[in-house]
Amino acid sequence: MSEPNPSYPKIATAACFGTFLEWYDFLTFATLAVAFAPLFFPTSDPVTGLLASLATFGAGMIVRPVGAAFFGSLGDRIGRRPVFLITISLMGGATFAVGFLPTYEMIGIWAPVLLVSLRLLQGLSAGGEIGGSAVYLTEHAGDSHRGFKTSVLQLMGPLGMLVSTVQLLLLHQFLDPISFKEWGWRVPFWFSIVLLLIALKVRMTLEETPIFIEMLATGQTSKSPLRDNFRDKETRKQMFLLFFCISAGGSVLFFCVQVYTGIFMKSALQISPQIVDTLTITATLVLFPLTIIAGALSDKMGRRPVVISGLLMGTILIQPAYQFLQTLSQQSTPDYFLMGVTLIAIAFPLALVVGPQTALLAELFPARTRNSAATLPHNLAAGWIGGMLPLIVTWLNKEFSSPLAGLWYPTIFLAIAAGLAIFFLPETRKIDLRK
Q1: Is residue 430 part of a domain?
Q2: CATH number of 41's domain
Q3: In whole angstroms, what separates CA 262 from the centre of its chain?
Q4: Can you tell me the mean pLDDT for 172-184?
């Protein structure tokens, strides 16, 4: 049995700050998708421009599995810590560079080409970070209260979205639309250099996990982690489950609750960005304690029942929640209070799925190939299913001339994930991570 590291709070803070930066960088692009459209993809049709902007966001998500395969395997061979320093440098540098990109009006087609190139770099680094962080924290956490201790990592996505949203809210508050279009949208990207320097400093103090150090000392590390993963029948099965069940479900819920709601309310419902950002901030603040509670619940009740409850709840709630938002926006006086309540309601299933997720990612796999086994399927699901959600949903809405038609995409995936979890997801909370 593994014992908790006495310096765990310091380790968690350092690891989580880096992951926060990864999410802040990645999601700043998503929250600015509406603003990007006319600057880099000029078109007479605003929906087409938005689709192009979302496709660029999706490009970064698509290459995440490539980063996961490379950096995940590297983490199993040379250690978790050095990979953290590489991925965060790539992400921070690419994000900072976006703030200096010339627009289409300045250099023509090269503007979207450069933007897509930087998105690809962001996607590669995110693939190595997200999943690897889960393994790193869980291996440091010990055997007791792993769900509670590691659930804080799942707050970094919402926190990154929150900080990004607050920035945009302040910019809209103090800048007129012309100034925001000319230079204001660049500020969140410029600010990322400050976060990068802080993150690098705190990550330099990180220790390697005791489990990896023990494997290194006894010669148990894998020379070809990806090959070993696909050769082992049980590992392949768990990777399949992680992809279709836990990660697909969590990613779809995250993008439905934290990303696409803002796009939907701003573009389809034509609600002012300031109001949407305020509602999003409120719902995100409520999500924080819910996620910690869900992680703690999984320590007492088990990972299975908590995750399954979240997936089933998400399957039931997503469609009616968006329909209700549309109904509220069409009233003579839109009810913004009830809109906020609706956003909080759909935060519940997200918390139930992602609260235990960090621990689950590590607990499903053997120690010697854990990093690559957890990182690859998790990023495949996040990139190809969850990450493409805004683009696919917006495209389906356009094809069927309905702002709600595309929501069948996340609903179907959540239903599949729930079914797989019910029949195949094992209980892992008492697993010895050294094995």
Answers
A1: no
A2: 1.20.1250.20
A3: 15
A4: 86
| Nearest one of 151, 60, 73, 122 to 374, comparing CA atoms | 73
pLDDT digits (tens, 9 = 90+) for 260-319: 888 889 888 989 888 998 898 899 899 999 999 999 999 999 999 999 999 999 999 999
Convert the pLDDT of each residue in 85-106 to its tens digit.
888 888 888 889 989 999 888 8
Q: Is 311 inside any structural domain?
A: yes
- pLDDT value at 1 more than 80: no
Tell me: the pLDDT tens digits for 228-272? 888 989 999 999 988 888 999 998 998 888 888 888 898 889 898
Task: Please indicate, yes or no, if residue 434 is contained in any of the structural domains.
Answer: no
Give residue 27's identity as a one-letter amino acid code.
L
**Tally of CB atoms within 10 A around 273:** 20
- Rounded to the nearest 10°, the torsion over CA 75, 80, 82, 87 is 70
pTM of the entire predicted model: 0.82
List, as one string, the DSSP characters of 324-385. HHHHHHTSSS--HHHHHHHHHHTHHHHHHHHTTHHHHHHHTS-GGGHHHHHHHHHHHIIIII
Listing DSSP states for 402-426 in one string gives: -TTGGGHHHHHHHHHHHHHHHHHPP
Look up residue 295 and give its DSSP letter.
H
The torsion region of residue 302 among left (phi > 0), alpha (psi -120 to 50) and beta comes to left
Total domain count for the chain?
1
Task: Check pLDDT > 70 for residue 382.
Answer: yes
Evaluate whether 158 touches 305 at the Cβ level (below 8 Å): no
**Which residues have a Cβ under 8 Å from the Cβ of 22 and sit 6 or more positions away?**
87, 88, 91, 125, 126, 129, 130, 156, 160
Closest CA to 353 of 217, 200, 246: 246
Give residue 246's domain range: 8-424
Report which residue type is found at 327. T
Alpha-carbon gap, residue 21 to 358, rounded angstroms: 18
Angle between helices 336-345 and 303-329 (to 10 degrees): 160
Q: Is residue 431 part of a domain?
A: no
How many helices (H) does the chain have, and how many strands (E)? 25, 0
432 band by pLDDT with thresholds 50, 70 and 90 = confident
- 203 HSE (CA, 13 A, CB side): 28
pLDDT top residue among 371 and 347 = 347
